[in-house]
Amino acid sequence: MMLRPTTTISCGLFGKLSNAVNTAAACQSKSRRAPIMVAKCTRSSSGSSSPPPPTSNNAGAAASSVKYAKTTAGTGNPEGSGTTGFSTRGPVTWPALGLVAIAAASAVSYYKIERERRLENAMGKIVSSESGWSPNPELLARRQYVRTKWGWFPKEDAFGGAGKPAIGGPWSLVDLDGNLVTDESFKGKWTLLYFGFARCPDICPSEMVKIGKVMDTLEKEHPKLRGQIQPIFVSIDPARDSLKALRDYAKDFHPSYVFLTGAPQQVQAMAKKYRVYMSKADETEDGDYLVDHSIVVYFHDETGDIADCFTQSMRPSDIVEKVVERMTFVPSY
């Protein structure tokens, strides 16, 4: 009677232990099978040809990338866009620059060759002309050419190879006696021509006194040359420089001066040929004014061609030296 409860208790205890063991075995079996399932999933995903569908995070990143690409399009900045198709090479390359340099050198060479050819053709036709030839008659006076043992060369003069400036030309004015005077009236004489006005307060008198000193120096040192030179004063203010006003003005300067004036149109035409700048300045309420003008003395040879120009900065001794050099110049061929 005492053994039956014990058997019952033992059976109940072993039953609970058996259930616990079975449960633990089942959990252990499940835990062993889980890595195998993950491995199988990994193999199936790596072996598949198509990627797994994007998650919500991947979709947001793709939208952000598209937005960024839109905002940086055309800026040339590939940052943040990963692998791009931008090229770091610019539109200009060294081979292209080399081709441009070769083309430029070829063009310059062709220009020089063509220029020499045309000059030779022109000289062959024009060098014998009595009036001479100039590449630009508006800037350089016509020059005659002579044939030497070295070929055709411009007729040598004191100006050298550069040639004479195209200054001067025919003109006509009146002297203090009212007589008509033209450029032809001084052929055979060397002339010192100056443009000014009688009411000039300082510059014109200074320049005219300078020329007077030149004449006196030539009288002492080169009397033969002095006899061939004629100083001339041309008024650029004909409205106020009447013949009477110029007669009074002439008393203050060298007696060898010839004073000329004329109608405004005549004076302007002559000033234009000599490229003389003149402009009315500092006009007052009562009508008085000054005249701004070029300060140059033009030296002509006995044929009326320009021989030299003397500026305000030159001293009387400098002008005397230049005058003697021009008047005694002898060409070497």
Structure write-up:
- The structure is a single chain.
- By secondary structure, the protein is α+β, with helices and mostly antiparallel strands.
- It contains 8 helices and 11 strands.
- It has helices at residues 3-47, 56-72, 94-126, 203-221, 223-226, 243-250, 264-273, 316-327; strands at residues 145-148, 151-154, 172-174, 180-182, 190-196, 229-235, 258-260, 278-281, 290-293, 296-300, 306-311.
- Strands 7-6-5-10-11 form a 5-stranded mixed beta sheet, covered by helices on one side.
- Helix 4 packs across helix 8.
- The longest helix is centred in the N-terminal third of the chain and has 45 residues, at 3-47.
- The protein is extended.
- The N and C termini lie far apart (169 Å).
- The model is unreliable at 1-14, 30-49, 66-70 and 124-129 (pLDDT under 50).
